[in-house]
Every structure is written in C-alpha cells, then in structure tokens.
C-alpha cells in the first residue's frame, strides 16, 4: 500500500473511532484513545525492510538482518503460494523495545467457562480487551476482579488491523523459530481475508486453520532441514501442552454445568487446577526440563486462562475439512469461508458443524501461547 492510500485508510478508521467516541462513556473514550494512540505509536516507529536490514548491517546485528530477510521470504510466500493479501503488511519493521505489542484482558465468572465480551462500534463484540501498556491492562483486570470476575492478562506478540493499516513486523515476534514466525505472519494476514463481526471463535478458528496448513506448506517447500526438525519438536511440545489445557478446560466446564452446589464446585475447581500443575510438571520432565511454558503459570490460574484457549480451536476441524474439500485451492477456500461468514449466526454455525464437529484437542494454541506466558489470538 502506498502512503497516500495508507493515510486515507488511517483517516477513515480515525473518523470512525471519533464517531464512536461521541456516543461512548468515559471508560470507552479512554480505551479508544489508548488504542488509537498506541497503534499510531507502533506505526510511527516502522521503517521499510530495506532500511531496517541496512541499519542492522550498519550496527553489526547480523542476527536481526537474517531474521528480517527470512521474514521477507515468508511474507512473499504468503501471497504467492497461500493467496493471502499482497499489500504492505509485514513489509516494514518496528522495534518497540518491549516484549509484547499489547496486553489483552480475558475474563470469566468464577464458576463458568464463558468469556466476558466487550462490544465496540468498529469491530463488534470480542472476548478480550487489549492495552498497549501492561500497567493499564493490569489496572483494568483488577477492576474486573473487584466486580467478582476472574481475569487473565496475556502478553500478545502480534495483532491485525484487518487491512486498515499496513501492520509491521515487530521485535516481539521476529526472533521466533522459523516455523513459528511463518505461523504468526500467516495467521495475522488471514484476518485481512475474512472477518465476521461478533464471532471471535469463527475468526480465530479460520486464521488458525490457515496458519496450520500454511506452515506445513512452508516447511515442505522452503524451510531448511534444521528449521523443519526444530519446528517439529517445538510443535510437538505445544500440542502436548495444548491437549493438557483443553482437557482441563473440559473438566472444569463439566463441573460447572453439574448439579453440585457452589461450595463443591469451588473445591473441585481447586483440585482440577492442582492436577493441571502436577501434570505440567510431569511434562517438563518428559521434555528434559524444557520450561518454555512456565510463564503461563505466573499469574494465579483462572477460568479465563483456559476459556481463551478454546476460543481459538472451536471450528478449526471444520475449516480444515473445508480446505481439503476444495483440493487445497486457497482462492476457492477463501470464497467459501466468506460465503459461510455472511450467513446468519445460527446458519453459519450449522454449516460449520456439517463440515466437522467442534475442535477437541486439535490444532495449535492461540496467539497468547505462541509466546509462552501470553495468550493469539489474536487483534
């Protein structure tokens, strides 16, 4: 995208945000200001990949130069082979000098796996609320806890502006292992292809299905043998950890839906979380001491930790089956996803159920688990 079109899109989204502010309460006004200001701050730090690579060489940072060159290859592959948008996204780079670009807040009731939702005029209703400063996210989460909700703050390495802006590569994810870097770029570009208002599970499951299939193509076509082997090990651990989380989520959901009284549910909840910690400790031993997911346990465990994971998995088998049904033709696949996305919610979900049942322990973790200790989703 050229800068003129970029400015027009930026102006459009800012006007929309301004109209939203005119009818919003004080809390929403503050939230929009930090959202718009935070994103513009990210964009202001971005430079072209040519400039960033030249700067890395000038400062003798061969590692950064290599990662940016790899990211450019992945980005070109995304449009050429996966038919993802061919625009300016991920063709610029910004070093934010922090570990995550945003921190998202997820919340649930004490005895429920249902994620709280927030509704906004531009993107509709979503099951998380993102902040560009960790302190702001923690402050908001503390308020939710005072209201009786359980809240989880997750560091997010990347998000999508749905094509309104040319999202840059960031230091928060450019150093990920090769397969992970490809996964991140494919996932975020997928959000520019199809986005359905008020249906986070649809959007995230679709992008997750694209990333899973896309990274398999990348590993087969372009990755080195070392990168392929490294990713297989990384992905195997993630799948084991993800399976543990989804099993735990299902146990908690069954408990909360049971006829037990609240006291019994609280006791059972504590026992289930103790079991989760114990099983993770065993996994670490099997992994030879690998501790990559330790940070996921840094905050006291809540329902929100696990409900967020399930959001990204619900319809992955359906989208995977759809891609298979069109013989891996990405253009036909996206067209069919758009058609389903345009249906009424009940018809949309019925169509997905006909393709495949909701996901149980399949696919990959969300954006937050991409960088252990965070949740990604994703946006």
Automatic annotation (TrEMBL):
Record-given protein name: Aminopeptidase
Cross-referenced InterPro entries: Aminopept
Domain of life where this protein originates: Bacteria
Pfam families per UniProt: Aminopep (PF10023)
Region (Disordered): 360-379
